[in-house]
Amino acid sequence: MLILKDMPVKPQVAIGLLGSTLDAGRSQDRWSSWRPTVSICMQPDFVIKRLELLHGLHDKTLATRVATDISAVSPETTVRLHEIEFGDPWDFERVYETLFKFARAYPFDTDNEEYLVHITTGTHVAQICLFLLTESRYLPGKLLQSSPDRTQKSPGTIKIIDLDLSQYDRIASRFRQESHDAVSYLKGGIDTKNAAFNQLIDRIEQVAVATRDPLLLMGPTGAGKSRLARRIYELKKMRHTITGEFIDVNCATLRGDGAMSTLFGHVKGAFTGALKDRPGVLRAADKGMLFLDEIGELGNDEQAMLLRALEEKTFLPLGSDREAHSDFQLIAGTNRDLLAAVREGRFREDLLCRINLWTFTLPGLRLRPEDIEPNLQFELDQFAQRTSHRVTLSKEARHAFLYSALASSAKWTGNFRDLNAAVVRMATLAQGGRISVEIVEEEIERLRATWAALEEQEESESLLTQILSAKALDNIDLFDRVQLARVIQICRDSRSMSEAGRQLFDASRTRKTSTNDADRLRKYLGRFGIDWDQIAKA
């Protein structure tokens, strides 16, 4: 145990239970007796700025008297009374729940105040619960014990206590329950069945509440990276391990000066159109969390600036010669292979090393067939919450949907976005709040058509990656890339360049004096550095 010596810089706020016996006293003699709640406010060179005093329904008179006495001996201390009721003070569950509700509702400000949890008063059950809530950071403070000196007179002494709670089995079980609740929260309350996914979320919960190091979430588009990032933030916010805001940015939408400005801010006049200062998202995320989705899309300059911001917590806004500061936790999301991007020179190896400390790969919906049914119900519940309109599936409709959803032909290329869109469409069309088999069959046909079109597009994109390097592809506009992919696919399915040219230029060839379609096609492919032999090999 360490005796408290130095007065902290931040104002001290004490939280404690009224001692119905130890804090009692009516006559003038009470000033010569040691009363723990009063004594913590009488310590020399140790100021309690505010005391949050919890008391029972029948102890209001005593609590008021104690507050009055504290005002007399420590005018700088503000006492706020909180009436709570345990019922049976030896009922562990009831006492814990009561104190837990207080902790969840209290507006802690850990940036500007330091909290002390006074554990001298109350029953042993209450003290154990205060230990538990402090250790789990629901009460984000230090444990404080007061004790009388040998004369049993005020003010006695105060101490900070460090106890090993691992021997208390019931408390350990409480921690397990809280961990289970946290895992359930990260999963959105969905009773997922996939063993690999559940194990993954267990590990994320362990890491998320214990560290402020960067986290990297990998997985295909629509696998739930954005939703999980926000829930990690909300969980840390509830545990008082983070105080700032959650800032969400999709890096695929950032280009040029706009990327630097969005991330790091700019000063007025930094570039054409910079009419006033802009703080940027890194500063907005100070003391909070920044989620950079599709981080692999960032340019080299932005990657270098981000690395410095992570390592030194400082960066230069665009056009400024004065450094800005931000202390944020980063969660990065990507559906790219960042190691391959490093090999190709499109992603900095030092940045990957910095964000690759904790990496978690979220599986797509096709790899979690057990979770389609619980997520189907979750989406229906979400629809009801958004629209105040409850929609259900008939037994036959539910069976028809799950039969098709679990079939090998179900691609779920958009993952949970596909499922969400399907439920929204079916629920919107459901008359009388009941989704019929006919609505399900119509939706399944729509999904299959979408998946077929996407599969054809992916096949074309795959051909492009076989013929052109990733760097070359990055220099081609999306408009040209889509057209080029289709042209290459037609070339691959044709026996000769002339045959491919005739198919590609069929409408315009009748209006030309020369119908050398092969030459037109050769020139078109030449714009991108491609010849017929490359396509044949692909």
Task: Give me the secondary-structure topology.
Layout: E1 2-3, E2 12-17, H1 36-39, E3 48-55, H2 60-73, E4 78-83, H3 92-105, E5 114-118, H4 124-135, E6 142-147, E7 157-160, H5 169-186, H6 195-208, E8 215-218, H7 225-238, E9 246-250, H8 256-264, H9 281-284, E10 289-293, H10 300-312, E11 314-315, E12 324-325, E13 329-334, H11 338-343, H12 349-355, E14 358-361, H13 372-387, E15 392-393, H14 395-405, H15 416-429, E16 434-435, H16 437-467, H17 470-474, H18 478-492, H19 497-504, H20 517-526, H21 532-537
Parallel strand pairs: 2-3, 2-5, 3-4, 5-6, 8-13, 8-14, 9-10, 10-13, 15-16
Antiparallel strand pairs: 1-7, 6-7, 11-12
Q: Which ranges are low-confidence, i.e. pLDDT below 50, for 5 or more consecutive residues? A: 1-5, 163-167
As a whole number of angstroms, the C-alpha radius of gyration is: 32 Å
> Largest sheet, if any?
7 strands, mixed
Mean pLDDT: 87
What quaternary form is this?
single chain
The number of distinct helices, counting runs of at least 4 residues, comes to 21
Overall number of strands = 16
Strand content: 5-15%
Shape assignment: elongated
Distance between the termini: 72 Å
In short:
The chain has helices at 36-39, 60-73, 92-105, 124-135, 169-186, 195-208, 225-238, 256-264, 281-284, 300-312, 338-343, 349-355, 372-387, 395-405, 416-429, 437-467, 470-474, 478-492, 497-504, 517-526, 532-537, and strands spanning 2-3, 12-17, 48-55, 78-83, 114-118, 142-147, 157-160, 215-218, 246-250, 289-293, 314-315, 324-325, 329-334, 358-361, 392-393, 434-435.
